[in-house]
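Narrative of accomplishments. A recurring question from our advisory board has been how the design workflow behaves on a single, concrete structure rather than in aggregate. To address it, we present the structure tokens for one chain from the evaluation set, followed by the sequence designed for it. No filtering or post-editing was applied between the two.
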């Protein structure tokens, strides 16, 4: 899958960089950032990490190239989650760009408006990196993680939880759900706001102006 994906992703980046129409220049870089993080997420899942999860245990075994390079499993897990969260924030940034272009025009925003936008996006990008930090302080030891996995899944084969790369992020699964779920709700609600605003704005504009 990686051999198929990489050429397609590279072609997509080429199209964004060199074939974007002049009237879409204002959205060009937000499209490129979104394309980069979504492409990296694809490559991470299919090649770099290749997570083998053991649901409902919040953990599993990474089977990708990073394991062959002896990258710690927990580092791979956090890298995968951060790629996913940054993809979500990039989607938000893309629609925020479109929404603000409709409000103020693509090139007529004041310094104050730009400062507010950059602060808003900076907070969201910081949240993508920081929302998993509380989990880092709850990572159980190898033995404790194995005991938790056996308790949750008594039928789990020993070759899985005895694998040297097997890891459990936390023994408090409700805490994981609350963090990930809270982050998802916050980001999704913002995306929906920008999408709905943009749709309403387009519908209210004269047809010849939209064109």
């Amino acid at each position: 899958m990686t051999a198929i994906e990489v050429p397609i992703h590279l072609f997509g980046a080429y199209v964004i960089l060199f074939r974007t129409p002049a009237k879409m220049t204002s959205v060009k870089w937000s499209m490129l950032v979104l394309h980069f993080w979504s492409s990296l997420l694809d490559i991470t899942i299919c090649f770099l990490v290749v997570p083998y999860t053991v649901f409902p245990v919040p953990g599993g075994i990474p089977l990708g190239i990073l394991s062959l390079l002896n990258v710690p499993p927990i580092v791979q897990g956090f890298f995968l989650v951060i790629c996913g969260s940054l993809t979500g924030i990039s989607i938000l940034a893309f629609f925020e760009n479109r929404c603000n272009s409709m409000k103020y025009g693509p090139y007529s925003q004041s310094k104050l408006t730009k400062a507010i936008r950059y602060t808003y996006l900076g907070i969201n990008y910081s949240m993508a990196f920081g929302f998993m930090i509380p989990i880092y302080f709850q990572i159980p030891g190898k033995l404790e993680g194995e005991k938790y996995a056996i308790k949750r899944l008594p039928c789990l084969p020993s070759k899985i939880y005895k694998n040297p790369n097997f890891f459990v992020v936390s023994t408090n699964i409700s805490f994981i759900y609350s963090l990930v779920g809270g982050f998802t709700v916050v980001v999704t609600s913002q995306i929906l706001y920008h999408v709905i605003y943009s749709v309403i704005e387009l519908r209210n504009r004269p047809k010849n102006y939209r064109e």
